[in-house]
Design brief:
The protein is mainly alpha-helical. The protein folds into 2 domains: 5-354, Fumarase/aspartase (Central domain) (Fumarase C, Chain A, domain 2); 361-413. The protein is 62% helix and 4% strand. It has helices spanning 20-23, 26-46, 52-64, 73-79, 83-94, 97-100, 109-145, 165-190, 209-220, 234-260, 286-307, 317-344, 352-360, 368-375, 381-398, 402-409, 415-418, 428-443; strands at residues 150-155, 158-164, 268-269, 349-350. β1 and β2 (158-164) form a beta hairpin. The radius of gyration is 29 Å and the shape is elongated. Residues 275-282 have low confidence and may be disordered.
Length: 444
């Protein structure tokens, strides 16, 4: 097995990271850092901090020159960061020492690495927004179409009361819709530029360091935090937390689908995927299981990231290195989950006949709660609950449907309504339609 399933040719379709994987490649990292160096030179040239002709030459070279990431391995191993090797390789490739001497003026490695990371995270969030909208559109259609399809709700794994399949789908979708709505605030609070120099004081950036930082943020389309955040990993944690909650929401769908497709339940079908190597009759819930597994992976890496968030003094190599090991795995795990959900959602097909059979099983006792409230209209509530429990015991002992016992003992009750799942779903259909409408609203 490859060191990571995200790098594996064998597992690439099981855990598909799509275009996001390219953003977390060595080439993309180098390209992002060069973009930062070029923008910094351009801003400093405009401010007169470095010669404008040198700034233009550096900026142009960062757009044109290609640096081989493999060439950075040795200096990175020696220095602990890639930027010194990148600067040396770039200056050599630029072959204009009179201009290259002004490269990286007053900045530090962390400024370049963190700002380059933010450029890649900005693109990642844009991709994730597109994927979320696609998943939500499919969920909205599914919820709206099946808003009135009754099925058994489960609590503690046991039949509870009737709900609707559309409401179940809405339950998967509402957290994702909330996460979509959070994105603008997340971008504003977390996609920060970093430019604070060696110890976070901006001492080598000159008297207009704050303006340089603001201008660099504007040039790169990032936000100016107005301060150093070298040891404040809040922006990284907020973005990772958002991704973690995406994985949790998708894992909820995965867990439900795995349960509802299992032998003896079979209330949902998932197309023709999931073949077994030895059991032809099986259709394994592969994609739902992958969603659950990816959530476990993402949440495990969240622990590493949180552990690494407390930096000593003004720079902490160990904490920063730990962040590098965890964050890409969180990003790629979330990317894989979203890509799976995009292809999984259209395959979900409710089996209305099986759902109806489930509701009719267990001697109509799924309607016990409704019965207790119906009896409470003519009895004190505790007495109504006691009478309902007694009828349920009798139904179990005699294997007589609860509806027949109620017709015998309480002929005044409207049994046709009381034991009709379509009449006992409460607000479930409305909730499903409301979710579908909320999804439609995000398109306009």
């Amino acid at each position: 097995m490859a060191a990571s399933v995200f790098d594996s040719l064998i597992y690439t379709r099981l855990f598909p990271t799509g275009e996001t994987a390219r953003l977390f490649s060595d080439t993309a990292e180098v390209r992002a850092m060069l973009l930062v160096e070029g923008a910094l030179a351009k801003v400093q040239g405009a401010q007169g901090i470095i010669p404008e002709i040198s700034a233009q030459a550096i900026h142009r070279a960062t757009m044109e020159l290609q640096i081989d990431p493999a060439a950075l391995a040795a200096p990175t191993g020696e220095n602990g960061v890639s930027v010194p090797g990148l600067l040396a390789a770039f200056r050599s490739a630029m072959n204009a020492p009179e201009h290259a001497q002004y490269l990286h003026w007053g900045a530090t490695s962390q400024d370049i690495i963190d700002t380059g990371l933010m450029l890649r995270l900005r693109q990642t969030l844009g991709q994730f927004e597109t994927h979320l909208r696609e998943v939500l559109a499919k969920m909205g259609t599914l919820a709206d179409t099946h808003a009135d399809l009754p099925m058994a709700a489960r609590t503690y794994g046991q039949h509870a009361t009737p709900t609707s399949f559309g409401a179940l789908v809405a339950g998967w979708g509402w957290p994702l819709l909330d996460l979509l709505h959070e994105l603008d605030a997340l971008r504003a609070s977390s996609l920060w530029v970093s430019l604070s120099g060696a110890a976070g004081t901006s001492s080598a950036l000159g008297p207009d360091a704050a303006q340089t930082r603001a201008d660099l943020a504007a040039a790169l389309g990032l936000n100016d935090p107005g301060r150093s955040w070298h040891t404040d990993r809040g922006p990284i944690l907020r973005i990772a937390n958002w991704m973690g909650r995406v994985s949790i929401a998708l894992a909820k769908m995965g867990e439900d689908l795995t349960a509802l497709t299992q032998t003896g339940i079979g209330e949902i079908g998932l197309g023709a995927t999931g073949a077994s190597s030895t059991m032809p009759q099986k259709q394994n819930p592969v994609a739902p299981s992958a969603l659950t597994a990816l959530c476990a992976q993402v949440q495990g890496q969240q622990g590493v990231l949180l552990n690494a968030a407390s930096h000593r003094y003004q720079r902490d190599g160990a904490a920063w290195f730990a962040e590098w090991t965890a964050l890409p795995q969180i990003v790629l795990g979330t990317a894989a989950a979203l890509n799976i959900a995009r292809t999984l959602a259209p395959t979900i097909v409710p089996n209305a006949g099986v759902m109806a059979d489930t509701l009719a099983s267990q001697l109509d006792m799924i309607h016990a709660e409704a019965l207790s409230f119906a009896l409470a209209k003519k009895l004190p509530h505790p007495d109504a609950q006691a009478a309902t429990k007694a009828l349920c015991r009798e139904a179990q002992e005699s294997q007589t449907p609860l509806s027949k016992l109620v017709a015998r003992d309480h002929p005044d009750l409207d049994a046709q309504t009381l034991f009709d799942p379509a009449q006992q779903m409460g607000l479930a259909p409305q909730d499903a339609h409301r979710f579908a409408a909320a999804v439609v609203a995000i398109k306009s």
